[in-house]
Amino acid sequence: MKTFLAKKETVQPKWHLIDAEGQVLGRLAVKAANIIRGRHKASYTPHVDTGDYVVIINAEKVALTGKKEEQNKYMFFSGFVGGESYRKLSDMRKQHPEFIIEHAVKGMLPKNRLAAKMLTKLRVFAGPDHSHVAQNPVKVTL
């Protein structure tokens, strides 16, 4: 019996919808990263993008445990000397709530060129409305 290896041409991605309201950030990010990578499929192949698209709504209502809201900081670097800046997670939730989930999911993907392509299949929206209704995403329960 031969080992099955998926090919890029044979992959048919589906669309999944995840509601982040009240969900813990880490658990949500793991589920989204596994769907984006294709780990939930029997045809999973590590070197081929076999994953599906993920639409996450209500990003501003994602839950955090402990004191992460006040203690976690995101570091940004401009590239110049002394160009480091830090922003609290609570500030990012107010200004750009999609970033919190995108950053968490990106950290759970492999660090290579294939992961950069996989990350384009993640769509995060702050509120309950999204622009991918035409794709008929299947609701995922966590």
Kindly describe this structure.
By secondary structure, the chain is α/β, with parallel strands linked by helices. It has a domain at 13-63 and 98-139: Ribosomal protein L13 (Ribosomal Protein L13p, Chain: A, Alpha-Beta Complex), CATH 3.90.1180. Helix content is 30%, strand content 18%. It has five helices and six strands. The strands form two sheets. Strands 5-2-1-6 form a four-stranded parallel sheet, covered by helices on one side. β1, α1 (25-37) and β2 form a beta-alpha-beta unit. α1 packs across α4 (97-107) and α3 (89-95) crosses α4 (97-107). The N and C termini lie far apart (35 Å).
Alpha plus pi helix count = 5
- Pattern of helices and strands: EHEHEEHHHEE
Mean pLDDT: 96
Number of strands: 6
Main-sheet strand order equals: 5-2-1-6
For the record, give the distance between the C-alpha atoms at the N and C termini, rounded to a whole number. 35 Å
CATH topology of one domain: Ribosomal Protein L13p, Chain: A
Query: What is the alpha-carbon Rg in Å?
Result: 17 Å
Structural class: alpha/beta
Oligomer: single chain
Name given to the CATH architecture of one domain: Alpha-Beta Complex
For CATH, the homologous superfamily of one domain is named as Ribosomal protein L13
**Helix content percent band:** 25-40%
- Work out the strand percent: 15-25%
Outline: globular
Largest sheet: 4 strands, parallel
Poorly predicted runs: none
What would CATH call the class of one domain?
Alpha Beta
